[in-house]
Amino acid sequence: MSTWPDDEGGWHMHGGRPSNEHRIEDLLEAVPITVSQLREAVGRFHEDTAGMLRASIATAERAFTELTACDEVIDKAAARGAEAADRLQTLLALEAREEVAAELAALETIAGEVRRSAASLRLLNRILGRDAAVEDDAPTAPVDRLREIDLPEVPSAYGDDTEYDDLLAMADREAEIAPKLEPAHRERIAVVAAHLVGIVRQAAETGFADERFALASLREARTAHALWLRCLEQRRGTLGR
Predict the structure, then answer these.
(1) Which long-range contacts (CB under 8 A, 24 or more apart) does 11-20 make?
(2) Alpha carbon distance 59, 64 (integer Å)
(3) CA torsion through residues 96, 98, 99, 104, sign
(4) Which residues of the chain have pLDDT under 70?
(5) Most buried residue, 45, 62, 88, 115, by most Cβ within 10 Å?
(6) DSSP reduced 3-state for 8
(7) 95-108 pLDDT, tens per residue?
(8) Is residue 5 helix, strand or coil?
(9) What is the pTM assigned to this prediction?
């Protein structure tokens, strides 16, 4: 995603590598400094106006390069996040515990890279006098949450209000619910897995560029992962597998 200034002080972006055909006036406008200010800042130029202009253009070119690099990090993060969501969907279905944990750790790394790039973007825009190009006050979309109480219940012969006249009645109840246990556990695990994948996909769609949304999403992903592991252990406790 390349970036260049428009006539109103904002940035235009499009996919692809940065063009080397920026107009000189565009480059000069990207450095908000007068000739006298530049001469004062770099006194070694003295009366060398051409040297000062070359320095201005070089500074603007470096800024364009850095801005483009930051944009590319965000673009690639979106693609990497979508790929991670696909892998998570497969790994969760396989109940590959270690691999799922590794994918979530990789997402944390991706989000960290984007946070650093976003900070660089803010700094570059301040340096270039284009603070309005970065909107920090936009409302953050809410992140869906899933808690254990929201999951389908597993039938039990030992409910709080259940009373039995004798052991035979209890055994009959256990036999009645036995066929329902595995589907119930499977449904709970599937609900949590789908939620976890959905959270990652939502964050990936933004390229993790909304820092607050990305942090909230990753926090919920960690919570969902812990709930998924807990559901697996509950199934093991009930069914022995």
Answers:
(1) 11/67, 11/125, 11/130, 11/133, 13/71, 15/75, 17/68, 18/64, 18/65, 18/68
(2) 9
(3) positive
(4) 1-61, 63-64, 66-67, 124-125, 127-139, 157-174
(5) 88
(6) coil
(7) 999 999 999 999 99
(8) strand
(9) 0.68
